[in-house]
From TrEMBL:
It is an enzyme of class 3 (hydrolase). It is found in: Cytoplasm. This is Exodeoxyribonuclease 7 small subunit. Belongs to the XseB family.
Length: 84
């Protein structure tokens, strides 16, 4: 029997799911038990989305130096001042 791989939802899919939960909860016609479950799912999605954004920010603020080492963008020496 072939085992299917579960893929992680994309950032956009998680964002869409969170927006759907918020919209449904804002309508106010959800039973309390369902609202609590959806709220908990929303909190989980929100944390996942924030983690994804934090990781993206860390990646985008790094660069490779001439030695092939990863360094923080802000800590990288200014290439214009190194020309003699």
């Amino acid at each position: 029997m072939a085992e299917e791989k579960k893929t992680q939802p994309t950032f956009e899919e998680n964002l869409t799911a969170l927006q759907a939960i918020v919209t449904k909860l804002e309508q106010g016609d959800v039973p309390l038990e369902t609202a609590l479950t959806q709220f908990q799912q929303g909190v989980t999605l929100s944390k996942q989305l924030q983690d994804t954004l934090d990781n993206a920010e860390k990646t985008l603020t790094k660069m490779m130096n001439d030695n092939g080492q990863e360094v923080d963008f802000e800590a990288a020496p200014d290439s214009e001042t190194n020309h003699e």
